[in-house]
Structure formats: C-alpha cells, structure tokens
Amino acid sequence: MLTITNHTLEKLEMLLKTTGYKVRYEKGNFKTGACLLQHSKIIVVNKFSGLESKILALSELARDLEMDYNLLDDKQVAFHQQLQQIKLEL
Fold first, then answer.
1. Rounded distance, CA 86 to CA 90, Å?
2. Distances in Å between the alpha carbon of 69 and those of 12, 54, 55, 79, 83?
3. Three-class SS of residue 84?
4. What is the signed CA dihedral for 5, 44, 66, 7, rounded to 10 degrees?
5. pLDDT band at 16 (very low <50, low <70, confident <90, very high)
6. What domains sit in the chain, N to C, each tagged with a CATH number?
7. What is the DSSP code string of 19-75?
8. For residue range 25-40, what is the model confidence (pLDDT) as tens digits?
9. How far, in Å, CA of 26 to CA of 8, rounded?
10. Are 80 and 15 in contact, with CB atoms under 8 Å apart?
11. Could you tell me the pTM of the whole model?
12. In this prediction, what percent of the chain has a pLDDT beyond 90?
C-alpha cells in the first residue's frame, strides 16, 4: 500500500520524469486526477485535487505505462515493481 505523503508524490513524479514523461499541474474541469495526452509524453494533473487523488491518479498511470528499466535506477525499478504488485492486490 502506498503512503499518502508528499514524498510518495515526488517519487511518482521522478519515476515518470526519468522515463521521459512531463508532469504538469493545471486547473480545469477534470473528472479524474490526471490524464495522458494522446501520443505525447505529457501527463496533466488537476492542481486542485487533493494529495490522495494526485497519488492515486499518477500511480495508476505509472502502472499502466511501459517503463524502460534501463533508464531507471535500482530504487525506481523496485518502486515500479511495488506499484505493479499493488495492482495485483486490488
């Protein structure tokens, strides 16, 4: 289970940024916490969402995206694998 802290949010952001995704926080009428813009590596997160919503949205996207483990360090690989396990438990 992920802890709902700013540190967890930062780890998710760094994981995505390391693999080439740009995470942006914007205002808007989002129904969910985040979205992946079609055919680009930009993730837009509703800046008015709570911390838990941001973490859940980014973790869901990170689980579903193809990750090149060659770009990640050992801690990031372990974190991504932890995210994959959380998906299996749900």
1. 6
2. 15, 24, 21, 11, 14
3. helix
4. -10
5. very high
6. 6-89 (3.30.2010)
7. TTPEEEEE-S--SSSEEEPTTSSEEEEETTS-HHHHHHHHHHHHHHS---GGGS-HH
8. 988 777 666 667 777 8
9. 20
10. yes
11. 0.85
12. 39
